[in-house]
Amino acid sequence: MTPEDRDPADRDTADRGAADRGAGSDDLPPSDPVAALNLIRQQRAEALRRIQPDPRWIYWPWGVAWLVGFGLLFLRFGPDQRVFVDLPSWLPLAVLYALLIAAGTVTSLVGSRSYGQVVGDSSRRGAWYGAAWLLGYVSLGVTLSRVTGALPVDRAGLLWSASAVGLTGVLHIAGAAIWLDRNLYLLGVWIIAVNVLGVIAGPGWQALLIALAGGGGILVAGAIARLRQRRSR
């Protein structure tokens, strides 16, 4: 997930590009300084609209994936191994993985379409941040696969889920530190807090908390980010 706020250098680049396009659209610049300033602002807003994607497309696919995927895990593998809905045992995880892959695909397409126009330090930060997600989850998967075989099924599932969700929260906070995005920081803190409460509650309950509070929190964060983006424009 990427924040909607860009670096000052990127905004300056957008401003310069907007001013150049505004000056080139007419033979003479506006004689009124107020009109010239308004023209620059309009062109700057148009440039930022092309650079900054709608944050709902960044947040909401992940929120839906958590809400549905972890919700199915709770229904099939409830507290004390209770089965609320008699689903095939493979189905909840298959749905969760499919939704996560779909969410990652949507995020990548939206990000590449918008942020592909940005060069410089911000582009490099985004690439390195994306690599951190990939390397973090590969390392986590390899490590857990070596130890969870000795645990009961419900405890192994809790360890996998809590570790992956916890890493997600930490990466959100790291992204917030890179882009100084308060919304992303608060979301990371929220995810970690919900995850800790879920671990304390135990297997089954953790999936329910991640589905409702985690997935729901991501959906709310996307809506808030969209409102902030519209106000800034």
Question: How does this structure look, described?
Answer:
- This protein has 233 residues and is mainly α.
- 78% of the residues lie in helices and 0% in strands.
- Helix 1 (8-24) packs across helix 2 and helix 3 runs antiparallel to helix 8.
Can you summarize this structure?
With 233 residues, the protein is mainly α.
Topology:
Blueprint (H helix, E strand, L loop, with lengths): L7 H17 L8 H19 L4 H21 L14 H25 L5 H25 L7 H27 L2 H20 L3 H28 L1
Order of helices and strands: HHHHHHHH
Number of helices: 8
**In whole angstroms, how far apart are the ends?**
21 Å
Structural class: mainly alpha
Got a strand count? 0
Average pLDDT, all residues: 84
How is the main sheet built?
A: none
As a whole number of angstroms, the C-alpha radius of gyration is 22 Å
Share of residues in strands: under 5%
Helical fraction: over 70%
Overall outline: elongated
Which regions have little confidence, pLDDT < 50, spanning 5+ residues?
A: 21-25
Jot down its keywords.
mainly alpha; elongated
